[in-house]
Write a structure and sequence with these properties.
Order of helices and strands: HHHHHHHH
Helix content: over 70%
Distance between the termini: 33 Å
Oligomer: single chain
């Protein structure tokens, strides 16, 4: 709860309302995409959730790793500023992971509602277990780049476009691991899912560390060329 309170210091009410609306839209999109595209809907959800997370991050933490985030003067003047931003970044990580999950919730609801068979099929469960950690991984990789470079909306839009390409290529590569006629669980996709989850957690640590470094370095250095 404390982390959420500190997260609010970096985000406006409008930003938080947009995230709630986006979560609801992803649930609805996942539900109806399953009706229109069937099992392939989960690939669309994976890309959409990650791209949305990257784009809207600009309004909360854009440029923080490059010491360009707006409205940081009050935080820097506080004795608890470092702890404040650390808690806010952790809360943001959890919220983005939950936002990535919402599309899958809609997809699961669609599968249960439209499927003629009771429960989720092995292929649906395998795809969810595989693509959710990949969604978190790709989101954090692109955020690592955007928080270093996105000092303007133009740059953020360009990075969001790159995120869509990155997601598409990665998802296309992963799709070859799973035969669409899968009727029972396969070991290889589950191993890849576990590896993606480990990489996702490691990337979260790298992202948080980079953001902290960007914040703390702003106290000592004003020349961009000396910041690495």
């Amino acid at each position: 709860m404390k982390k959420l309170t500190e997260y609010r210091a970096f985000t406006s009410l409008y930003y938080r309302l947009i995230l709630i609306l986006l979560a609801l839209l992803l649930i609805v999109a996942g539900f109806f995409a399953d009706k229109l595209l069937g099992i392939n809907a989960v690939f669309l959800i994976t890309a959409t959730a990650s791209i949305a997370n990257v784009f809207f991050d600009y309004y909360a933490f854009g440029g923080i790793s490059a010491r360009k985030q707006r409205g940081m003067d009050m935080v820097k003047s506080s004795f608890y500023g470092s702890n404040l931003i650390d808690s806010a970044l952790k809360a943001d990580m959890y919220i983005k992971a939950l936002l990535n999950l919402t599309g899958f919730v809609g997809f699961i609801a669609g599968e249960l509602y439209y499927s003629e068979e009771p429960g989720l099929s092995p292929i649906a469960i395998t795809l969810i277990l595989l693509l959710y950690p990949i969604t978190n991984l790709t989101t954090r990789v692109i955020l690592f780049i955007s928080r270093r470079l996105s000092t303007t909306m133009v740059v953020q839009i360009f990075i969001t476009y790159l995120a869509s390409m990155f997601n598409t290529i990665l998802i296309f590569a992963v799709s070859f691991l799973i035969p669409m006629e899968l009727e029972e669980f396969s070991v290889i996709p589950l191993i890849v899912a576990a590896a993606a989850e480990v990489l996702s957690i490691l990337m979260a640590i790298v992202l948080l560390t980079d953001c902290r470094k960007g914040y703390r370095s702003s106290f000592f250095d004003t020349s961009e060329k000396n910041y690495r």
